[in-house]
């Protein structure tokens, strides 16, 4: 009867079950410690079927990184209405990011910890996903800056640097809040919004922080 | 004559030369691609001497992580006068951080990329160094918050979250500015200071960003 079931279930559905089991196992036990036996058992399939569909532990892990990376970037994009004011867009984006990473802690562990810790090909997969998030945030900041100024005086490089800072801060906070009991996604989003917005907001209004005069000599 | 030189030079000095060569090689070529032959040649010593002093490629890499991590945390601590006002401390700390990572790009690559990408023991070494930086920043923010308020209303958890966000932002910006031609350490520090201070500064003064009323229902 098990064999009959296996035959009837479409391959795409089976693969998603295997990926679910793999993300959970890689995320909780780590890439090295995770075994294909364990993943097959959790997915309720035979180990040869996992190899038939996903080829190898490396390919299975790569498929996990791609799926989880895509789900995260899609969640952030879906959370943001680009017709909203800039601070609302940022708040919505941060809430979508922290909600998703809190609801999918194993996926986040695969992306943020496991994929970076086990060799360059996996790290490159994550870097591609991260570049997409940075591009999205860069565009958000650039649009906000254009709205705020008649003549834009936030240089492209400054905007790119701010986007890198914001994404780095979000990654760091997501890892911390998932590892710290009692921190909700909304609290993490509010902490980063507090940290970031008044700073970005002042920049948009042309009020940068100024270095102390006595050090700079001006 | 080479052999005489080798004998005369103190072990501690030789080891530092080997570590200099190893950091350069690991940082520029990556942990996997770096060979012990290459490191020995660059250090001007024989390969057996490298193994005699540092034991294995793994141990040599661990020694690199520890030395570079210690140098970075010491540079940040040394850059900050804890008697200064909070914004000056943060500015000095950020300038020390970005100057150090810009002057030691190979060391930063070892810490930020290589050590995280090649297995849990190395990642754990970097995590310990990072925890020290986070603790330093946490204390800086906590002291500033105590100064700014008669009764401290920034909860410990909020301060811890802000420190995580700031360190994550700094790591991300350092990697970006080292990889982007023409971005100076001072520009990177100013970008993050602009991003962070007005936000933190407003928090210290008890002016948090408020979520839009219509979403929060309050």
Automatic annotation (TrEMBL), chains A, B:
Swiss-Prot/TrEMBL keywords: DNA-binding, Transcription, Transcription regulation
Coiled-coil residue windows: none
PROSITE patterns: HTH_TETR_2
InterPro entries: DesT_TetR_C, Homeodomain-like_sf, HTH-type_TetR-like_transc_reg, HTH_TetR, Tet_transcr_reg_TetR-rel_C_sf
Highest taxon, organism lineage: Bacteria
Domain HTH tetR-type: 12-72
NADP among keywords: no
A Pfam family matched in the record: TetR_C_46
SUPFAM superfamilies the UniProt entry points to: Homeodomain-like (SSF46689), Tetracyclin repressor-like, C-terminal domain (SSF48498)
DNA-binding region: 35-54
Record's protein name: TetR/AcrR family transcriptional regulator
The organism's taxonomic lineage, starting at the top: Bacteria, Bacillati, Actinomycetota, Actinomycetes, Kitasatosporales
């Amino acid at each position: 009867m098990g064999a009959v079931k296996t035959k009837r279930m479409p391959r795409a559905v089976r693969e998603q079950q295997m990926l679910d089991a793999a993300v959970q196992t890689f995320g909780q036990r780590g890439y090295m410690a995770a075994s294909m036996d364990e993943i097959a058992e959790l997915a309720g399939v035979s180990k040869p079927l996992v190899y038939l569909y996903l080829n190898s532990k490396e390919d299975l892990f790569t498929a996990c990184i791609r799926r989880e990376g895509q789900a995260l970037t899609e969640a952030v994009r879906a959370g943001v209405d680009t017709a909203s004011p800039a601070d609302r867009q940022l708040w919505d984006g941060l809430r979508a990011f922290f909600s998703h990473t809190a609801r999918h802690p194993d996926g986040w562990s695969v992306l943020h910890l496991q994929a970076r810790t086990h060799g360059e090909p996996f790290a490159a997969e994550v870097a591609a996903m991260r570049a997409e998030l940075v591009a999205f945030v860069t565009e958000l900041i650039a649009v906000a800056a254009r709205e705020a100024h008649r003549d834009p005086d936030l240089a492209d490089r400054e905007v790119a640097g701010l986007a890198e800072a914001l994404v780095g801060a979000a990654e760091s906070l997501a890892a911390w809040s998932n590892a710290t009991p009692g921190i909700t996604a909304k609290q993490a989003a509010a902490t980063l919004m507090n940290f970031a917005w008044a700073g970005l907001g002042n920049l948009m209004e042309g009020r940068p922080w100024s270095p102390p005069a006595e050090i700079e000599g001006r």
